[in-house]
Amino acid sequence: MQSRPTITKTILVVDDDEGILDATSAILEYEGYLVHSTLDGASVLQLEGPLPDLLLLDIWMSGTDGTDVCRQLKSNADTRHLPVIMISASRDIEQYARDAGADDFLAKPYEMKELLEKVKRWL
Known about the structure:
The structure is a single chain. By secondary structure, this protein is α/β, with parallel strands linked by helices. 33% of the residues lie in helices and 20% in strands. It contains 4 helices and 5 strands. It has helices spanning 18-30, 66-75, 94-99, 112-122; strands at residues 10-14, 34-38, 54-58, 84-88, 104-107. A 5-stranded parallel beta sheet has the order 2-1-3-4-5, with helices on both faces. Strand 4 (84-88), helix 3 (94-99) and strand 5 (104-107) form a beta-alpha-beta unit. It is globular and about 30 Å long.
């Protein structure tokens, strides 16, 4: 009996903190996800080709703010279905993230288990 091929889900991680970007990417890759990452929030709005299955997006970034990116993605018919989990070191701005259209919120520093639970919920 042949085993079914594993379908790998793609996650785009966007954070202007390289350490968080690297650690989050490593955790997700270890769990079997295909991970792309960028330090530049504005680059998300230039996505071409197949979209990721999930976007982990920092709220406060130098340059383009994550809430602006989220609002633009959610207002575009081609990208509004893309699940967005916004992340921030400020725990008290979850409503701000949701008002921007985020599907979920994760406060930094986050536990690996919490990150993986939220990712699985949206994939």
